[in-house]
Backbone:
C-alpha cells in the first residue's frame, strides 16, 4: 500500500473551508464534497473521513488556527509510537492526517449513559506522564478529547501541548469522576444539562469557591434541592 495514499483526498479537502467563530465556539464549515463526512467539530478545526479511505482522519484547520496545525505536527512527531494517541501520517497546507480512531468520546458516554471504566482515567494519567517525559505539557484534556475504545482510553487533540501552564481541566475531571460521577453512572444526561455544566465551569473561579461548592451547584441542577 502506498504510504501516502491519504493524499488522494487532497482535491475533496480543497473544496472545504473551516471558519473560526470564537475562542470557545465550534467552527462552521463551508463547501461541499460527496466523498467527505464530518465526524467532529472543535473550536479550531473540523475532522473529516473520506469514503474510500476510512482509515484516515483529516483535521482541517481554520485559517486563523494554522499555527496550531504546525504545533500539532511537532507534538505528534515527539509522541510517535505511543498507543495512547492517534497515529500521525502527514500533513497538507491546511490539514493533518491521523489514524481514524473508532470509539466514543467521554462526552457522548454521558449523553448515552455508557459507563466509563476507571481504566480510562488510568490510561489518560499514563498518557500525561508519557507526554511529560517527552518534555511537553499535557493540557486541554476534556470530555470531547478522550475516547472510550475497547474499555481503554485514547487521547485526541494534542495541539496545546507546547503551551505553558496547567489549565487543571483533567485534574478537575478526575475529581468529578471520583466525587460526582458515582451518582450519575449509567444515567443518560441531556445535552442541555451538560452544556450548562460546561458553561458554569468556564465561569468557575477557584479563588472565590471550591470544587466542592461547584459540585454542589451541579448536584442541585441535576437532582433539585
Residues:
Amino acid at each position: 500500500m502506498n504510504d501516502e495514499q491519504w493524499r488522494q483526498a487532497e482535491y475533496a479537502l480543497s473544496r472545504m473551508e473551516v471558519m473560526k467563530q470564537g475562542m470557545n465556539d465550534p467552527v462552521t464549515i463551508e463547501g461541499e464534497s460527496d466523498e467527505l463526512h464530518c465526524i467532529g467539530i472543535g473550536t479550531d478545526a473540523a475532522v473529516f473521513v473520506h469514503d474510500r479511505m476510512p482509515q484516515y482522519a483529516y483535521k482541517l484547520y481554520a485559517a486563523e488556527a494554522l499555527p496550531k496545525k504546525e504545533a500539532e505536527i511537532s507534538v505528534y512527531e515527539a509522541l510517535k509510537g505511543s498507543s495512547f494517541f492517534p497515529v500521525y501520517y502527514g500533513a497538507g497546507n491546511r490539514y493533518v492526517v491521523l489514524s481514524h480512531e473508532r470509539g466514543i468520546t467521554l462526552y457522548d458516554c454521558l449523553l448515552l449513559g455508557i459507563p466509563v471504566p476507571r481504566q480510562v482515567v488510568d490510561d489518560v494519567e499514563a498518557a500525561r506522564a508519557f507526554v511529560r517525559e517527552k518534555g511537553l505539557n499535557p493540557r486541554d484534556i476534556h470530555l470531547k478529547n478522550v475516547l472510550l475504545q475497547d474499555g481503554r482510553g485514547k487521547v485526541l487533540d494534542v495541539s496545546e501541548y507546547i503551551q505553558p501552564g496547567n489549565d487543571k481541566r483533567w485534574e478537575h475531571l478526575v475529581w468529578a469522576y471520583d466525587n460526582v460521577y458515582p451518582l450519575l453512572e449509567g444515567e443518560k444526561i441531556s445535552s442541555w444539562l451538560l452544556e450548562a455544566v460546561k458553561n458554569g465551569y468556564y465561569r468557575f473561579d477557584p479563588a472565590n469557591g471550591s470544587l466542592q461548592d461547584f459540585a454542589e451547584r451541579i448536584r442541585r441542577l441535576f437532582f433539585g434541592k
In short: The CA atoms of residues 134 and 182 lie 34 Å apart. The mean pLDDT is 89. DSSP finds seven helices and ten strands in the chain.
